[in-house]
Amino acid sequence: MAFLDVMACGLGATILLFLIVKRHVELMPRPVAAEQPAMAADDTAVAALRRDAALLTARIAEARRQSRERRVRATRAAADRTRLAALKRDITQAETVHESLRREVESIEPAQARDVVEESRKGEEQYLLGLKVEGRRIAILLDRSASMTDHRLIDIISRKVGTDAEKRKGPKWRRALRTVRWLLHRLPEQSKVAVTAFNDRASALHGGGWADGRDAATLKALFAELYELVPTGATNLESGLQKIGELSPAVTDLYVVTDGLPTQRSASSGLFGGGCGGKSATRISGACRKKLFHASLRHSAPAGAKVHVILLPLEGDPEAAPSYWRWTALAGGMLLAPAAGWP
Fold first, then answer.
1. How many other β-carbons are positioned within 10 Å of the β-carbon of residue 119?
2. pTM score, two decimals?
3. Is the bond leading into 318 cis (omega within 30 degrees of zero)?
4. Are 260 and 314 in contact (CB under 8 A)?
5. How far are the Cα atoms of 1, 64, 86, 93, 243 from residue 143, in angstroms, in the given order?
6. For 137-266+284-336, which CATH superfamily applies?
7. For the residues of 278-328, what is the DSSP string, one character each?
């Protein structure tokens, strides 16, 4: 019995020792070196997850931004469609108004021309801004001296020795005739007209006296006489004004077509004075021409008449424009020096 007890106790001690040793082994921590590969794998996985999370976050943000832009574009497109619809309505209304105005304009009968004589030239009615042909008794005084043939002195001298046909073809003379024709075309209704041409002496056209300014036969007869005139001789403004002064009743509006100051006075007044000598119109000085001009006005200018001067400037006569301007200003009219292309 004692041996069995000893054996049982030994077996029990062995079992107890075995249990104690095995539990101790399981509770002992594993070495750190064995854990490092697992930890590295876990860190890599975490980093990958973080990258995926950041990528998803960026994609979500981009999707939200694109969504916002689409909403903005949709709003703008809706606003544009609204504006386009409004513009189409405005265009439709404007086209309706335009069509209405077009029909109204087409329905208006064109005004009949008031010119007594047909004029082939177009676009000249309003060229001389401010010059309106008006008055009850209108006198036109046309300078037909030798200087009215051309613009330059050398050309004027050349034409002096030419034939009458060559003188009539002078560019300034043709322009002067067109100017008189322009005036005659625009005579007002119920007006009377008288045309006088002057060089060293004056001559009244169409028999002198007042003529009906709206009678086509009278105007055609005046045109025919005008185109028969020859520009030659000196410039005696006083003789022209004296002839105008013979009209009865007196002139109310005077239109003078000339190119410069006078070079001669009437015989009754003396050819020259005030220290101006000689008889050649080509040698008279500018100062003498100015004296002759003032003397002519003092003796013969029509009292109470409104005076307009259309000046076709002459080379070498700088005092003409200011002298004629003062006369027209005092007489209630105007001085006009039109451009070379008129009329």
1. 17
2. 0.64
3. no
4. yes
5. 182, 92, 67, 60, 13
6. von Willebrand factor, type A domain (3.40.50.410)
7. -S-TTT--HHHHHHHHHHHHHHHPPTT-EEEEEE-PPTT-TTHHHHHHHHH
Residue extents of the structural domains in the chain: 43-101, 137-266+284-336
Name the amino acid, one letter, at 166: E
Query: Residue 4 has what pLDDT?
Result: 73
The helix/strand/coil state of 110 is coil
With a CB cutoff of 8 Å and minimum separation 6, the contacts of 253 are 134, 135, 136, 137, 138, 139, 305, 306, 308, 333
**pLDDT tens digits, residue range 103-161?**
888 887 665 555 555 555 544 444 445 678 889 999 999 999 999 999 888 889 988 88
Rounded to an integer, what distance in angstroms lies between the CA atom of residue 139 and that of residue 187? 11
Task: Classify residue 250 as exposed, middle or buried by CB count within 10 Å of its CB (0-12, 13-18, 19+).
Answer: middle
Nearest to 249 by CA among 333, 332, 191, 181: 191
Q: 66: phi > 0 → left, psi -120 to 50 → alpha, else beta; which?
A: alpha
